[in-house]
Amino acid sequence: MTVFSIRSQDLEAARRVEEFQAIAANICKLHITPADAQNYRSETVIGLLPGIIMADTVHSACTTDRTNQLAAETGDNILLHIPVSGGFSIRQDGGHDVECAPGQVYVDPNEVPGVAEFRSEQANVFYVSIPRSFLASATAGLNTALRDVTALTPQWRLFLNYARSLHEELPHLAPEDAMQCAAHVQDLALMALGATREAAELAAGRGVRAARLKAVKADIERLLTSPDLTPDLVAARQGVSPRYLRSLFESDGMSFRDYVASRRLLMAYRQLADPTYRTMTISQIAMQAGFGDLSWFNARFKSAFGATPSDVRARAFTG
């Protein structure tokens, strides 16, 4: 996996536009014409993985042209344009003039020439490129969506949120974890495009469940110190059944109870070593972290970290 950036401001001012145009033509297969050449700014962070390419781009007003020659140099990929802010108009061969704004997705057959215009002084668009072969089981939905916009449905939002999170964390992931996450992105795209039942069930077993579990864990972090944190409460907040919630954690190799305990133990560990909490007793820290039984807390803490809470505190404030 590879992550790299393209920044116009890193280029020599006198030749900034020409050099940036050359880079964009080589990497993005686009010819870019800034609306204001002197003040044009663009920054793109690209993540390359087997099966997907992701790019988070922020730039000022410009026109992008995928010429016949540049289109011939692209692969047989589907490029998904998802505006985060700003927006653009686009027309590709065989299509019609389309406006794409935040809350929409444009589905681009990447090998087709076309022209897009970005009028906003700061457009932020997230792109995901997926080989067409990976989307074969969603062919009917894909063909309907090509060269057009579609609403950012809940399925597309799951796709976007998961892909953006992966893009952000990519530099910190082990290669095998990143490849597994790339498969989740593909599955979520299948679901959003209306794949066959078999493919949708596959997505439900991987991509959708992974995205749902991520949302559940984020909700747990918000409620971590609450004495009311239970599977029933989190399930109700997430709009799923407690049984489904338990199955999410079982598929992740840990029960809901053990996951919550591990997060609370880590919170307590950090506070025990933090001078900000030095005036608090160990029992107060344990209670604040959500542990009602001090002896159980001490036993779980030593099992998790190989040291007692007193040991951790003593090491933090001596020497």
TrEMBL record:
SUPFAM superfamilies: Homeodomain-like (SSF46689). GO terms for molecular function: DNA-binding transcription factor activity; sequence-specific DNA binding. Transmembrane segments: none annotated. PROSITE patterns: HTH_ARAC_FAMILY_2. This is AraC family transcriptional regulator. Keywords: DNA-binding, Transcription, Transcription regulation. It holds the Pfam family HTH_18. The keyword Oxidoreductase does not apply. InterPro entries: AraC-bd_2 (IPR035418), AraC_XylS_family_regulators (IPR050204), Homeodomain-like_sf (IPR009057), HTH_AraC (IPR018060), Tscrpt_reg_AraC-type_HTH (IPR020449). Residues 214-315 form the HTH araC/xylS-type domain. The keyword Transcription applies.
